Amino acid sequence: MAEYNRVSECVGLITLRNPPVNALSAAVRQGIVDTVQRALSDPNVKSVVICGQNGIFCGGADIKEFGSNMTGPPLIPMIHAIESANKPVVAAIEGSALGGGLELALGCHYRIAHSKARLGLPEVSLGLLPAAGGSQRLPRLIGVPAALNLITTGRHVTAAEALQLGIVDQVTDHNTVDAAVKFALSVAGRSLDPRRISTHPCPQQPDLDALFEEVMQKVRQSARGAIAPIACVQAVRAAATLPYAQGMERERELMATLFTSGQARALQYCFFAERAVGRWRMPSGARWDTSKPRPVHKAAVIGLGTMGRGITVALAQTGLSVIAVETQEKQLMEAKQAISGMLERGAKRRGVAPALDGVIYSQNIQAVADVDLVIEAVFEDIALKTKVFQQLSAVCKPGTLLCTNTSALDVDQLASETPNPELVVGMHFFAPAHVMKLLEVVYGPRSSPQAVATAMQLGKKMGKASVAVGNCRGFVGNRMLKPYIEEAFFLLEEGATPELVDQALEEFGFPMGVFRMSDLSGLDVGWRVRKGDGLVEPGTASGRSARIRQGRRYSPLGDLLCEEGRFGQKTGRGWYQYDKPGSRVARSDPWLHSFLGAYRAQHGLVARRIDHQEVLERCLYALINEGFHILDDGIAAGPEDIDVIYVSGYGWPRHRGGPMFYANMVGLAKVLERLEHYQQLHPEVPHLQPSSLLRRLVASGSPPIHKWGEAIKKLHSQL
Ligand SMILES: CC/C=C/CC(=O)SCCNC(=O)CCNC(=O)[C@H](O)C(C)(C)COP(=O)(O)OP(=O)(O)OC[C@H]1O[C@@H](n2cnc3c(N)ncnc32)[C@H](O)[C@@H]1OP(=O)(O)O
């Protein structure tokens, strides 16, 4: 797993070999220990180069080993032995040097990087800290402020930035190993004392306490309950204030707490879940590895409202040429200006030229005749969308993929309006579409695997977390959101306030509670949907019967607010009040509290004390329960799909892994027991009725989440 060769007569070349990213598995660590020893004991070898095979230095510790008993030589003494060597050791960094990979490089005496390489200590995003000396060496090398920034954010830096920061000694555009060997020859015999980073003092920093105080505050605010960023700050503080050996001891203690924490397990689960969703499969048996995507060179977007504009930007930024269609001239001109602005700002941030020429604007749908893929983003109206799909079927060249950005309408119905339903899929973007990571790729029974593969590949190109899901009302994300929101409304009826509900959810880790989120997205959105479903009844009927609609408990609270013109931030009033329409700072509203009091009195409801635990159990377990229904229905292929959707599109705190992972952590039996408890109290609420899959999983011994797939298959075959 680490190959040894002698090159240029006197350079020992060690090559890490562990595809695909040369992770530091037990075998690789053993290989490094053995080959370093061999190089150091060979009198003909004057210096050593460490590189990785296949253009990547090292992706860090092998994350797959974390759950098991770790064997093999530990990283810290291995890196220490390299740093203590009496021959210069040079790291030749191509591709990535991340986590333990960069820590290994920091133990080397010199670092040479290819100009396209990226370096970083991303442990924080796995719920850890750089505990192979990284938290102690990096601040000594580049200073406390820069090290704090890299270690607490986990961001990857380019080779150019690494050079500027002093992480690497040289950047090359040519063969990195050749450059490193040449460099190793040139430094053979030089004193290595100044090159051993652990022996350096941390560069002096004025107002150290104030700096740590400020960073800690910032980190606490943005971490929303995550513990790793805080431990990272504490570890760097140890580097800045303690001798190296004591700093290493502190690094070890902090890591020990993190390593076994539920947060680290959740974050590592997210890492693998994000990769697992790329290996999509459909109930028909079609799969990612047997379905070839069609090439997409030219795309079109129909309808340039907020969503269409964002989608156009996301497509143009991938380098595609895009035809952007809006039939009204005024709207087209406004959209052109807005899209150009977004492209320019995005390009400035990324330091590239804006793809302004990549977008052609047109009022005429005929302009899309030769595109490979169309994304329809017109108003959410089935008649309008049907018309657009019929026009597209007539205009587009044969084989063009027709995608709809609907968030609520039936993809199958739209597909059935076209002569080629196999070419139709949903591409459900989230606003703002050029920023939000999530994309639900919605297939119907007639969507071809090739259409799904093409949409998934395009999503990946746009940098989205793309998840393939089946077609149903609300798809996965919005379908699960419905019971969550309904429970929040019921809690208000029973005595909670929007402030209490939001506080409980925000302390759990959501960036915004359900009511602040509703104010942001607009109360009228849900009102329109409920009207369409025939649920909204004007009038002042009171009592329990007024709150049972279509045979189930219904809360008209949201409708009543909308009747008052309280649509949220845009009208300056919603569940909260705002200084003016469009303002973002939510303030508690006495009007709302007296409205809730009057509403309860009118309906004979007696307010009771509701605590945070009840808020979390009712809102989150109702949402999770819907997740089990979705798995049982085969709408999502596995719990990872649901979790990626919730973490990347709905603000579920990443350090809690996603709703299904959370259920697994809490214990399926406990979730079932609490749902049964609330269902007994609220028999008229169907979404509290535990899903049969949840019951069956508990009955079969609550298998761990990575075994749910097998269990679900087995349980289905027994039905
Ligand atoms: C003792 C504790 C010490 C901890 C210190 C650490 O080092 S913790 C690990 C720190 N490293 C990282 O966080 C890096 C994680 N990897 C990445 O960011 C990316 O994989 C990459 C290296 C930038 C490569 O990206 P790319 O897009 O090219 O590939 P994928 O992300 O799709 O990965 C390909 C497959 O490799 C698996 N993989 C990646 N990194 C690791 C790893 N460190 N350990 C184990 N496996 C890793 C990844 O899961 C993919 O596998 P598939 O089976 O193909 O899905």
The number of helices is 28
Main beta sheet: 8 strands, mixed
The secondary structure category is: alpha/beta
Q: Calculate Rg over CA atoms.
A: 29 Å
For the largest sheet, list the strands in their spatial order.
Answer: 12-11-10-13-14-15-16-17
Low-confidence spans: none
Bound molecules: ligand L4473FGL
Global outline: globular
Amount of helix:
40-55%
Distance between the termini: 47 Å
Mean pLDDT over the residues: 96
The number of strands is 19
Approximate strand percentage: 5-15%
Give a description of the structure.
The protein has 719 residues and is of the alpha/beta class. The chain contains 28 helices and 19 strands. It has an eight-stranded mixed β-sheet with strand order 12-11-10-13-14-15-16-17, with helices on both faces. β3, α2 (75-84) and β4 (89-93) form a beta-alpha-beta unit. α8 (208-223) packs antiparallel against α9. The two termini are 47 Å apart. The model has no long low-confidence stretch (mean pLDDT 96). Bound molecules: ligand L4473FGL.
Give a short synopsis of this structure.
By secondary structure, the chain is an alpha/beta fold. 47% of the residues lie in helices and 12% in strands. The model has no long low-confidence stretch (mean pLDDT 96).
What are the defining features of this structure?
binds ligand L4473FGL; 6-stranded mixed beta sheet; 19 strands; 8-stranded mixed beta sheet; alpha/beta; 719 residues
Outline the fold blueprint.
Elements: E1 2-7, E2 11-16, H1 26-41, E3 47-52, H2 75-84, E4 89-93, E5 96-98, H3 100-107, E6 110-114, E7 118-120, H4 134-142, H5 144-153, E8 156-158, H6 159-165, E9 170-172, H7 176-187, H8 208-223, H9 228-241, H10 244-259, H11 262-276, E10 298-302, H12 306-316, E11 321-325, H13 329-350, E12 359-362, E13 373-376, H14 382-395, E14 401-404, H15 411-416, E15 424-429, E16 438-443, H16 449-461, E17 465-470, H17 477-494, H18 498-508, H19 514-521, H20 523-532, E18 548-549, E19 552-553, H21 557-563, H22 590-602, H23 612-633, H24 639-649, H25 659-666, H26 668-681, H27 692-699, H28 708-718
Parallel strand pairs: 2-3, 3-4, 4-6, 5-7, 6-9, 10-11, 10-13, 11-12, 13-14, 14-15, 16-17
Antiparallel strand pairs: 1-2, 7-8, 15-16, 18-19
The structure holds ligand L4473FGL.
